[in-house]
Design brief:
By secondary structure, the protein is an alpha/beta fold. It is 43% helix and 16% strand. β4, α4 and β5 form a beta-alpha-beta unit. The protein binds orotidine-5'-monophosphate.
Length: 245
């Protein structure tokens, strides 16, 4: 998958309802955004529902696999046949698991004659801060754990990481510019933070080098989701050059 062909803003379709998801995608038709389908929708509607909602549009299938290498490889192989642009696993699953996931994405896509999805590692969830790390046996600061996991993911052949925008400069310094960074925890200035702890504005995240932004509630819960998406895109300035289809 050529990541340059994906829109920079991926809207998180977080609902169990096929009707609500379809209505949201419909409202955003013609707006330069892609879609991220996660555990909430997938658990209710499965892959068939995903395809009904996104149609032929590129999508990030965010299932955050975290299990033993053989199980994760089987899951990644299975979903890679269904043409996601991006799939993800938890970096905390370890090196062997990530290497297995990278190989399985290739195998699953090849067997289906599909393009290989980008395989991305979740580092430290954006709902956690320094104080939360100790409780799960990890050493703060968050940025050091994120960079440790990003280096590990890169050494295992993964294409990039999910992180907050606060860690982007450190990841760029450690992993270089061609390593993809997918950034949730996006909030327009003054927006409701809700359960997110490491939040940054869309424009700041792009200025700091994010490859893609994942935006959920600031768009999906807005009174006018289409206008909210357009406002976020406008705040990002000129679109980056996109690869021809
Ligand atoms: O992998 C993700 O997409 C993800 C990782 C992470 O660390 N934090 C995070 O919020 N996400 C996802 O990004 C989306 C953020 O949604 P909002 O907080 O509503 O913008 C949700 O769908 C989360 O599942």
């Amino acid at each position: 998958m050529d990541s340059a062909a994906l829109p920079r803003v991926l809207v998180a379709v977080d609902t169990p309802s096929l009707e609500e998801a379809g209505a949201l995608v419909g409202k955003l038709r013609g707006v330069d955004v892609g879609f991220k389908i996660g555990l909430e929708f997938f658990s209710a509607q499965g892959l068939a529902g995903v395809h009904r909602v996104v149609g032929g549009a590129p999508f990030f299938l965010d299932l955050k696999f975290h299990d033993i290498p053989n199980t994760v490889a089987g899951a990644v192989r299975a979903v890679s046949a269904s043409r996601p642009a991006i799939v993800n696993v938890h970096a905390a699953g370890g090196a062997e698991m990530m290497r297995a996931a990278a190989a399985a994405a290739r195998e699953g896509a090849d067997a289906a004659g599909a393009p290989r999805p980008l395989v991305i590692a979740v580092t430290v969830l954006t709902s956690l801060d320094d104080a939360d790390l100790g409780a799960v046996g990890q050493q703060p600061p968050v940025v050091e754990q994120v960079v440790r996991l990003a280096r590990l993911a890169q050494s295992c052949g993964l294409d990039g990481v999910v992180c907050s925008a606060k860690e982007l400069p450190a990841i760029r310094a450690a992993c270089g510019d061609s390593f993809a960074t997918i950034v949730p925890g996006i909030r327009p200035a003054g927006g409701d933070v809700a359960d997110q702890k490491r939040v940054v504005t869309p424009a700041q995240a792009i200025a700091d080098g994010a490859s893609f932004l994942v935006v959920g509630r600031p768009i999906t819960q807005a009174s006018d989701p289409r206008q909210a998406a357009l406002d976020i895109l406008a705040s990002l300035g000129a679109p980056r050059a996109r690869a021809p289809p």
